[in-house]
Amino acid sequence: MSMFLDTAKIKVKAGNGGDGMVAFRREKYVPNGGPWGGDGGRGGNIIFVVDEGLRTLMDFRYNRHFKAQSGEKGMTKGMHGRGAEDLIVHVPQGTTVRDAKTGKILTDLIENGQKFIVAHGGRGGRGNIRFATPKNPAPEISENGEPGQERELQLELKILADVGLVGFPSVGKSTLLSVITSAKPKIGAYHFTTIVPNLGMVRTQSGESFAVADLPGLIEGASQGVGLGTQFLRHIERTRVILHVIDMSASEGRNPYEDYLAINKELESYNLRLMERPQIIVANKMDMPDSAENLKTFKKKLAENYDEFDELPQIFPISSLTKQGLSMLLDATAELLAKTPEFLLYGESEMEEEAYYGFDEDAPAFDISRDDDAAWVLSGDKLEKLFVMTNFDREEAVMKFARQLRGMGVDEALRARGAKDGDLVRIGNFEFEFVD
Q: How far apart are CA 212 and CA 198, in angstroms?
């Protein structure tokens, strides 16, 4: 039996940009050679691509870390380093990608071949040819490559189906799926035979077709984790119509109407919006004794508990074993699908805003704190990026970094906080003394 996995947590790290180079022209007949170091290449992106051949997130169970290649370093003669190839990761249709830290949704991948960059590679660092000026025609400055984006992602698979089958265990959902589609679900005379969602395609006599998902049986208290809980109900969120299958023979000793109320309560507890989807009640096992009488009682109770202005759901008596009433059920389902629009899965508040790969102008450029050893600690996205991209092997680059800190107001801010000459200042693992 193939294993099914519909959630996974992974880490992705895009490639770093290649470092720029410091080099100079030294040809015999070029007396004033000047700088000749090229830029580094771009780091590789990590791109998710939808593959309709995949049905599960099982691949991510054994491979949870994805790292793209870094760009090549810049070269002499002003040559750029080669950019790294993007890392392509294939995911199944219906995969929702969230940022694990913020919980925001990055993308919802539902179309075959759809692509999305989940982590952007860093740009290449500039070589010293970029820093030449009339005042400094031979700079010994180059940049390190920009770090690639690194993030933790939560993947969630919600299978693509137009119609979802719900109901208590052993009401005949899997049997119904097997007779109306070419799907071959495992069927047994005991509870929770179905432990993974099954998907099949239906074609009606009139030529219409739609996808049906058979979900593992719910039981009362599923929303509190009883039985299989609601771990597979995420797969019904993409459906537009729900077929609520009820064992009208009461062969398990349960009351059909109470079953109907209990399952709806679990759907509502999981997600209120599931109750917005139109339902068709499938009265199954009508070939069994007492089913006809139970159906009469069911219809009476249903009518009594519905407001006079509410439209009663359609009820179709069927028998999956004898195939009684199936064609009428499928035609009605296709008709209801035709007039039911897609349901919006995620609100704007759940989606991450369009990514901006720069700095927030309103955010502070740096932050100052105090460590346990009394050292001053500088942090902040803009400052840390400048630090990482500075080549500290070159004195000229170090002086440039010091000027950048001064221009950002770091010196003044440290003085205002009480920093004195000789105090230790730390940026990451790098330490230097404060000079007043």
A: 8
pLDDT at 340: 93
Compute the Cα dihedral for 284, 285, 287, 290 and give only its sign: negative
Query: In the chain, what is the straight-line distance between the N-terminal and C-terminal CA atoms, in Å?
Result: 71
State the Cα–Cα distance between residues 88 and 169, nearest whole angstrom.
40
DSSP code at position 414: H
Which residue, among 275, 273, 278, has the nearest Cα to 261 in the 3D structure?
Answer: 275
At residue 232, what is the residue type? F
Q: Write down the pLDDT at residue 261.
A: 93
Instruction: Tell me the per-residue pLDDT of 310-339, one tens digit each, with 9 for 90 and over.
Output: 678 999 999 999 999 999 999 999 999 999
User: In terms of DSSP bridges, do strands 430-433 and 314-317 run parallel, antiparallel, or are they unpaired?
Assistant: unpaired
What single letter denotes the amino acid at residue 134? P
The pLDDT score that the predictor gives to residue 211 is 93
Model confidence, pTM = 0.84
The strand pairing partners of 150, in sequence order, are 13
Which stretches does DSSP call E strand in 171-278? Answer: 198-203, 209-214, 241-247
Q: CB within 8 A of 287, min separation 6: which ones?
A: 319, 321, 322, 324
Q: What is the rounded distance in angstroms from the CA atom of residue 233 to the CA atom of residue 244?
A: 14
Contacts of 141 (CB under 8 A, 6+ apart): 22, 128, 131, 391, 394, 396, 397, 400
Q: Helices (DSSP H) in 132-276: which residue ranges?
A: 173-180, 256-270
The percent helix, strand, coil of the chain (3-state, each to 5) is: 25, 25, 55
> For residue 383, which amino acid is it?
L
User: Residues with Cβ < 8 Å from 341, sequence gap 6 or more?
Assistant: 240
Q: What is the pLDDT of residues 166-194, one digit of tens each?
A: 988 888 888 999 999 876 655 545 444 44
| Under-50 pLDDT residues of the chain | 1-2, 188, 190-194, 221-224, 226-229, 355-359
Q: What angle do CA 61, 118, 13 make, to 5 degrees?
A: 70
Buried b / exposed e across 376-409, counting CB within 10 Å, b at 16+? bebebebbeebbbbbbeebebbeebbeeebeebe
Among 133, 138, 141, 139, residue whose Cα is nearest residue 34: 138
